[in-house]
Amino acid sequence: MGVHPRAQDYPESFLPGVIPDESELTVGTKIEPGKRYGFFTDTTLCIGCKACEVACKEWNSLPADNMGLSGMSYDNTVKLSADTWRHVMFVEKVDGATGMQPFQSNWLMMSDVCKHCKNAPCLEACPTGALFRTEFDTVVVQQDICNGCGYCVPSCPFGVVELSMADGKAHKCTLCYDRLKGGLEPACAKSCPTDSILFGEVDDLVERAGKRVEELHERGVTDAYLYGAPNTPGATGGLEQLNAFFLLTDRPEVYNLPPAPTRPANRLAPGLLAGMAAMAGLTLAAAAIFSAPGEKRR
Amino acid sequence: MRKPTRRRSLLDRIKSFGKEWSLPRQLQGQSHVDKAAESSMSRSLRPRLEEADSVGTSICPYCAVGCSQLVYAKDGKVIHVEGDPRSPINQGTLCPKGAATFGLLTSPRRIDKVLYRRPGGTEWEVKPLDWAMDRIAFLTKRTRDESFVRRLPDGTLVNHTLALASLGGATLDNEENYAIKKLFSGGLGMVWIENQARV
Amino acid sequence: MPQWDLANSDVILVMGSNMAENHPIAFRFVMQAKERGATVIHADPRFTRTSALCDIYAPVRAGSDIAFLGGIIRYILEKDLWFKEYALHYTNIATIIDERYQGPDELDGLFSGWDEEGKRYTYESWQYEGMTVPSSLAEHYIDTTESFNDETKRLSEGPPPQDMTLQHPNCVYQIMRRHYAGYTPEMVEKVTGCPAETFLKICEALTKNSGPDRTGAICYAVGWTHHSTGVQMIRAAAIIQALLGNVGRPGGGILALRGHTSIQGSTDIPTLYDMLPGYLPQPHAFKPHETFKDFLEMEQTPTGWWANFPKYAVSLLRAWYGDAATPENDWGFDWLPKIIGDHSQLPMTVAMRDGVIRGLFLMGQNPVVGSSNSHMVQRGLANLEWLVVRDFAETESATFWYQGHQVRNGEVRPEDIKTEVFLMPASLAGEKAGTFTNTHRLIQWHDRVVDGPGDSRSELWFVHHLAKRLKALYAESDRPQDEPLKNLTWDYSEDDVMGEPSADDVLKEINGYTWPERKQVGDYQDLKDDGSTACGCWIYSGVYPAEAHNQSRSRCPDGPDGPGTHLGWAFAWPSNRRTLVNRASADPDGKPWSERKKLMWWNAEKGHWDGHDKPDFPRTKSPDFKPDWDSQPQGMDAIGGADPYIMIADGKASLFVPSGLKDGPLPTHYEPVEAPIRNPMYKVQGNPTAKRWEHWDNPLHDPGSPDYPYALTTYRLTEHHSGGTPTRSVPTTAELQPEGFAEISYELAEELGIKNLDWVVLTTARGEIETRALLTHRLRPFHYDGRIIHQIGLPWHFGWKGYATGDIANVLTALIGDPNTSMHENKALTCNLRRGRLGKGH
After folding, report:
1. Which CATH architecture has domain B48-105?
2. Rounded to two decimals, what is the model's pTM?
3. A-chain residues within 8 Å CB-CB of B93?
4. How large is the ipTM?
5. Do B164 and C264 touch (CB under 8 A)?
6. How many CB atoms lie within 10 A of CB C25?
7. Dist. CA C522–CA C492, nearest whole Å
8. With contact defined as beta carbons under 8 Å apart, do C222 and C827 qualify?
9. Domain edges within chain A
10. Distance from the C465 Cα atom to the nearest Cα atom in chain A, whole angstroms
């Protein structure tokens, strides 16, 4: 098991700085603007360690939710929220289990995250342009634009976006937008000990995921299927495709995922939406120029 | 714990509005959902690792797997810790504990002064490091001198003290363990020296 | 075996370990093996996150592991599925044992040599026929005040008696067959609770993946060591691996998954009472260690690598006492303190409580949470004159005097506790330079990138400046007892204005150098017994082989096309070898067993060993080398070219251990000291040699006691680390497991009327704790003899400090020790349970 050949370019203990294109070393992908990136989360490899949750919070300086002991298996962060952008859910199925199968069995563990939908309802609902599609084809809330109107919150069929109690703005996974700009793999995927979370170009990931499903079927895991890849459950109702998609072995509801998510704006004419966005933009501009500063004074 | 945004002057606001307003960019043909919507914060966004003026290799302080970490520091302060992609053990990955090493180094629970509790005391007192070192050296010598056994009653030479003890070492460096064993056993004659290897 | 080598395994048995949770990054190699088709097995009392990822899960009642492993040994022998070419040549399976030997199969649970009065064994009847064999580890290998050096010398007179046809009734093979005859699948099911069908599936998976072309690995952790039979559990695994030819080969081996970052290093360079650096024994007042000559005679083995013992001992004394160590004063041997018994952590607790120990240094350890019988520990701390705690935050052990149990329940007031307490801020990795040794012996340097906050200092700084102060205080003394301190070499340079000593200097001394020139030695083979070399830890020689070459800082991994041994990444002791006993990766003739499992081979043309690793064997010793017994060969001259286990006196893996173990030459099933049932296999209930410290505050439960009907096992969670001080201090980890809890099966909960998240009280004779109930089907009751045996699981990370808190599990546990290691037995106890809370004052 060798590491990436470029690792040998840095034999010293101290480094001159960030390793350029570090993602090549960690996941074999060079990150370039204009390409489409996402996550393939393969639940059959997940050991429920929550490294993704921690790496995300440490990188993005997110505070603890402090939900307390939930009593729901080992899940104490409970859900995705403004402060929890990766969430590992646990479903115990030991009772009545009929045996083991290769890879994860009888205790489901799955790291949930923003899906970065191809047709993202949150983005379509955003009147200010705070939510936008980046050069990496990810969906990001721009904190310097967001005014906390909250339209995005109910529009998300997955319950991902939430307004923060701390600053009133919408927050969710950015797919580590800053890291992508610096050639770094997103924090959660980089930390994942078993590569249950794979980061990469979405088309590559879809291909790999398809092969993985076939292989699992051959090894007897006949329940394995993709959720959110083109033409699979999750990629429904006009969403077309989720850039962060999953391999599951039980019904989507078991993982708290909607079996057939829909896009609220599916039937609205795109032109109308653009006009509304422009109007909203003007309103916001006026507000920004003429109103008193909104930030709290010290 | 997010950083507060800096207050801006009216001129700044007008300037930035000119740059930020997406309509002109949409009219130039950029899409309203991506390029035209890009804010100045998004445009200037970079990973904070790039600000580091020192990047060293560390080893995860938790279990014995030995994952390699890169410690990024700026102006003498740690700005982040993450997995070292070169390591044949972890190849950049870390478990939840290791992934929280930055949180450990910057934990609000850390103490930065010697806390002292006098016999029968009911609270901590802050003490200078030098004072504590002098006092500990004094106590060590006193206890050793009062308890040292050169020979057992049957004449067997033992050269030890049973009144001093040391516990801990599995979380420490080899060099530290070496120094502890050398001073405490080879120098002071302590025999109660143990660590977590038996826990 | 290196952790990454697990990816080459064809079958992996994880037992006595919850690997996915406690060593997630090591588990990544298990997953890689699985991707490549390996079968992964987990045997454990609880269905954990590790179990969920395995192909086969075997529920095994806590403490019944030897019954399970013994069953595997029986299966291998009875089905004749062992790897004959390997085991016949590389183990002592054909060796003939003394005719007086009798085993538990004949003596209903005891071995021959039992001394009922002394509760100990004598070992004469366990020896090879006609010769006495010393243990491979130079640590108190035989409990005797007599020197038996004359007897071990017979090892030089000829090879141990063998019957290669295995027909001799007292050859190890026949003894093992008799010993394990009773460990049938039915008996395994009865004792362990694992269905025979599941057990047999595991036997098949292990044996199918053994032979020239295939290898398997076993991973264990404290799930095996935390027992009164812990050493023998690991021994049983070693027997399986030696029989299946799984040692020294790619993808084969036993991986001990250790819990702290440098717990291996702190064993190699021991902050332990019974050893000096490099596994040299600490001199003992009641052993023939009176003079240096006695010490060497007693501890040097005539044959095998340990014949070099005097070189390592003299070099260590030279490193510690410099020019003051002379041949005339036995290199200062008398200055080393002699131990007089067991000074390990469990008796240390008693010695504190009884006032024997008056001053204690606690460096990065938190015994109030992490030590057995926390109430006794807290009483011990309260009885000290002074206590120095060095940690990065307030720990339970530093705050016992105002928040401890005895303060809260009114047993004592802070005003009455006379302990003078210093809590000193400690630097962490990243804030200090030095090396950690990981679980596969890899010594890795960590840089100092920043300084710790405020007055935080490294332990090295603390010890260095304490040493300087003490040397000054003792400078004028002329008492003989102060000579060792005055003569102790202590000239490490200081790196900065804070006076941080150079870790580099210390590592150079550990590596060793010539004396007095201080030119680094390249390897331990350069060490001498004439005082011309100084070396702090012989097995670490080579880590700093030249003035400007710190190999522990090297960061050159193999690329994807490389051999995958990563010889350029840091340094693995000894001599940068990645796989120990790797001579065994080749057949007796020196050829790889197979192309698929190739690692080392004999290059006849060049006359040396070649391969992907550094050979763990004399490089130029040919496979056909035979000792010249007429010349009474010593040391390595007595080891043949096809004897890979060079640290053992006869060069062969010890299936049967003639000396070195206090509780028998073969692993035998005993119930834990506190067991819910009587031993189903023998009249002898528990390990007869187990250490017990029965005091008024350390009472033990009788086997099957109706007052404590439930089996209790303690464990860790992936989200926290050991005593929890670090992870409970970080919000992002604390929130993941924010509070203590006990895992309880739905069946037991129903019996006792407990609902999920209810408060419950757990009780043992040592104390009571309250915690929350987490109901789960992952924990299931076992059935034995028509009875239901409920088990309760309890994480032990919690305490009263930090962002995640909970009652201290170790309030319930007891001082009970493995006879060989003094390791406590906290994986298998008994307890009681009720719904409710403890009253006020708790």
Report:
1. Single Sheet (2.20)
2. 0.95
3. 51, 190-193
4. 0.97
5. no
6. 26
7. 21
8. yes
9. 35-266
10. 28
